Amino acid sequence: MENQPIMSHQNRTYGVANPGYVQTAEGAPAMFAPPAADSQGPSAPPASMFDSVPGYEGTVAGGGGGFLPPPMPTHPVPQPEPGPQQPHWNIPSISEETAREAFVLFASSKCCYNASPAKDGVITNMEAFNTYRYRLETFTESRSTEWSHEPYSGQPVDAFAQPPPGPWDIPAKSPNFFMDDKQIIRVPNTSSLKSCHSCVGMGRTPCKDCAGAGNKVCWVCNGSGFRHGDDRCHHCSGRGRENCTRCHGQGAKQCETCHGKQQLLVYIKLTVKWANSSDNYVVEQSSGLRLDNLSKVTGKELFKDSQYMVYPVMGFPDATVVNAAQRLVNEHQSKFSQTSRILQQRQTIELIPVTKVTYSWKGNSHLYFVYGNEFQVNADNYPATCCCTIM
After folding, report:
1. Ramachandran region, residue 115 (left: φ > 0; alpha: ψ -120 to 50; beta: rest)
2. What's the Rg (C-alpha) of the chain?
3. pLDDT band at 18 (very low <50, low <70, confident <90, very high)
4. At residue 213, what are phi and psi to the nearest 5 degrees?
5. Are 227 and 233 in contact (CB under 8 A)?
6. Are 287 and 369 spatial neighbours (Cβ–Cβ below 8 Å)?
7. What is the 3-state secondary structure (H, E, C) of the chain?
8. Do 102 and 377 contact (CB within 8 A), yes or no?
9. Maximum distance among all alpha carbons in the chain?
10. Backbone torsions φ then ψ of 7, nearest 5 degrees
11. Positive or negative CA dihedral for 205, 210, 211, 213?
12. Residue 293 has pLDDT above 50, yes or no
């Protein structure tokens, strides 16, 4: 028999065969939530939302269209020129006093080191192992495009007014050489007006928390309308459901895509990136100090050359530096010229001072290294350490 009342003695609520109606024990109609619907909306704008723009046919939405190779230059590019001749530098070894002061400062900075070896140890030998570091920096500009959109609030709509300029013809700001930066530019003559795809031009979307119902099962009584026995739930007034706090009972929220504007300005976004890429080569030295320690210090600059494209270093006393310069210059030009425009290159050569110090303490011989302009110290086998326990 249709609409036959059905009683549940466990939660004292009455239901009917009609799924659109629920009755509490006191006869008050309970709030009803329809079946949950898919309120997520489209995950991405449809392809039909984007116009076909000459010169930008491969542009896609969201993920970017990839880096665009720069066009061939219309005028001769300047040729690299040999850099200035390298002066002869003679960096003397550090003094014993400097070596000891650096060692004492090092030991004092360690909470578990006894400073006695640094203060009382007798220096028996100091040996210089100065080395070279060659660095090549290449500063590039790259450009990529992608379709983008934003809520429409009166921005100019200029699509098809005239052909848009090419991605490498659009003026960008003047960058500071060798500093990473980025600029976002709206490509002229690509902006059009479209109905919002997320809310189908309504300006509002179903609330995800309540599936558009405006209410949810009461969390206090779990939808029964009662708390203990015959005690009516005061949180939901016995209805078994409560208003959704996210949408304030409206069942819908302002569209997050168009911000309630119902329309979107759709355009091609150009991203201009300036990046400085650097590679180093450090000449191996036989002191025993690991090369990775030298990456944290500076040296005495012996040579510096900056121009549009540098010429590999020639005539430097150390042949390994010359070979490394030739290799890195070739690698950078091959690597970066395919997807970006090289704006400037810079190469430097530093002489990094490294001194191996041997000292005696309590009848045993030990050693440490002092390196870099900062007089950093490396002492892997310091003879007076203790185990610290943090309470």
Report:
1. alpha
2. 36
3. very low
4. -80, -25
5. yes
6. yes
7. CCCCCEEECCCCEEECCCCCCEECCCCCECCCCCCCCCCCCCCCCCHHHCCCCCCCCCCCECCCCCEECCCCCCCCCCCCCCCCCCCCCCCCCCCHHHHHHHHHHHHHCCCCECCHHHHHCEEEEEEECCEEEEEEEEEEEEEEEEEEEEECCCCCCCCCCCCCCCCCCCCCCCCCCCCCEEEEEECCCCCEEEECCCCCCCCEEECCCCCCCCEEECCCCCCCCECCCCCECCCCCCCCEEECCCCCCCCEEECCCCCCCCEEEEEEEEEEEEEEEEEEEECCCCCCCCHHHHHHCCCEEEEEEEECCCCCCCCCCCHHHHHHHHHHHHHHHHHHCCCCEEEEEEEEEEEECEEEEEEEECCEEEEEEEECCCCEEECCCCCCECCCCCC
8. yes
9. 108
10. -110, 135
11. negative
12. yes
- pTM for this structure? 0.74
Structure tokens at 165: 């300029």
HEC states along 26-77? CCCECCCCCCCCCCCCCCCCCHHHCCCCCCCCCCCECCCCCEECCCCCCCCC
Q: Looking at per-residue confidence, does 384 or 27 come out higher?
A: 384
